[in-house]
Structures
1.
Amino acid sequence: MPFGFFKRQDDKQKVEHGLKRSKDSWIARLSNAFDVPAITDDLWDELEEILISADVGIDTTGTLIKRVKERIRKDNLQNADHAEDALMEEMIVILNAPLKNESQPSNNEPWVILVVGVNGTGKTTTIAKLARYFQQQGKSVVLAAADTFRAAAVEQLDIWGKRVGATVISHQQGADPGAVTFDAIQAARSRSADVVIVDTAGRLHTKSNLMEELKKVNRVIQRLDPTAPHEVLLVLDATTGQNGLTQARAFTEAVGVTGVAIAKFDGTAKGGIVLSITDQLKLPVLYLGTGEGMDDLVAFDPRDFVEAVFD
Ligand SMILES: Nc1nc2c(ncn2[C@@H]2O[C@H](COP(=O)(O)OP(=O)(O)OP(=O)(O)O)[C@@H](O)[C@H]2O)c(=O)[nH]1
Ligand SMILES: [Mg+2]
């Protein structure tokens, strides 16, 4: 399991809030589409169009429709309601990508979560939300201000650290991100902290020197604890659409992404992107960011998500 993964009581409401724009567009069309007396080719065409408009992507849309058709044929179903149920079930199957974080820290060692992504996707905010979420579970958190590149990045993390009550380890701007990470893990050890979350500078996935720097941070972590990092969390901006897939592939190649957090989910009408990510990348979506506040984070649950879509 991802570190400290648990569902909060209001997660479902937050998912619904995150889906608001989607509800006003493709979700409304989706429920209307099944309001027909029988399953016809028109229904399949309509579904295809709606799912693609939701950013589910052409390939994943094709897979979904194929599997729904197979279910319909196998069980000899004729009713459009049955097609709707079948679509729900197949969406859940696709969203349940296997977890990738297999290693755990040895006794008393902190969990290390490395957070990566391109510029401005929502990394630092997501880290603050995660710190808050872990602290609410009684876990102690150390944040590593390893974005030493952007002016004010350290200050931004400091402010969040104070707000949520997490220790922030930082150096001067321009310092070596590996050295900050090293110090943060050592600090976490000496305080017996439960988890270290490493904030890294936003970087374009196509810039090989910047990706090399990230690999270096990863190596520093691995040298301190061969079981770490225990999670490499890629933060994608929900409004970026299919380009997120390209980013994910590049970061996976560089540092082995184990899970995805989709920030700014409240800002997109194309919530179908989650299906595209889990299907095309076989990476689990672990969290959704549903606002700018520190509690606007949802532990992603495939069934709750699909139920919110079809509600
Ligand atoms: N609406 C909304 N805004 C968000 C969410 N997550 C982050 N933001 C906003 O997105 C902007 C960028 O967030 P940051 O956390 O600074 O992004 P970052 O990836 O750390 O940026 P760099 O460090 O510059 O690469 C801020 O204005 C955040 O408030 C979210 O879930 N919903
Ligand atoms: Mg940042």
2.
Amino acid sequence: MSRAGGSARVQVEGVHKSFDLDGRSTPALLDVSLEIHAGELLCLLGPSGCGKSTLLNIVAGFLPPTRGRVLVGGAPVTGPGPERGVVFQEYVLFPWLTVAQNVEFGPRLMGKPAAGCREITARYLEMVGLTAHASKFPAQLSGGMKQRVAIARALANDPAIVLMDEPFGALDAQTREVMQEELSRIQRVEHKTIVFVTHSIREAVYLADRVVVMTSAPGRIKEIFTIKLPEPRDRFAPEFTQYEREITRLVKEEVMKVHE
Ligand SMILES: Nc1ncnc2c1ncn2[C@@H]1O[C@H](COP(=O)(O)OP(=O)(O)OP(=O)(O)O)[C@@H](O)[C@H]1O
Ligand SMILES: [Mg+2]
């Protein structure tokens, strides 16, 4: 199968975003500049309301920045595009389609021949461990299974970039760890550029090549950590705990500011 999508670099250049609240312009993001390397999994962490989803939505092309710009693979973002896949916390699946039909939807829409669509669907259903559930409907699945379908569906379009906004936020702790392990394994095969928003510091340290800690609102970049741990990562390793401790301290500093 061709792997046309590959991965791509994302450049966020001097992005500001303000929203109008009761006629007043309120800043949500202040001068965010960030380069996300091709094939990198980057986690965004920060207090609630600091602008993580806003930044992700700007990269996705769902929201325009007030100032600044985003480049994907060197080209300015002017709206959503097929090279950017998104996975949200709520499982946005088509309830009237089966698991396989949900995954096949994108490739079909792009006009891929039926045999190619079936091959892609089989590949990604296997990757997320849902081959045996291909003909079920979303309502018949658990939360973890639905989110696996959402991931398979995003990957089936062969995007260069996958934008994930708290994709495991609604899952129980055990399912969440299993999903993290699966995503990490998939990423070691697919090497997509992934921007992953989370509130969980453990999740970020487990998954990320780099972790970006944002300040409390309006969001700026506070610090960037490179996680130099071998994969698959050992959540109980002392080095893992050390990263967790350092990042927790920084995030807490910002969360405390919100409550001052
Ligand atoms: N469409 C919108 N219109 C007006 N204000 C908005 C809009 N979207 C976001 N905001 C505001 O921008 C700020 C950042 O919101 P955003 O959802 O990006 O935060 P977040 O970091 O994702 O928070 P959380 O961790 O709770 O998901 C908040 O003050 C929010 O109220
Ligand atoms: Mg959010």
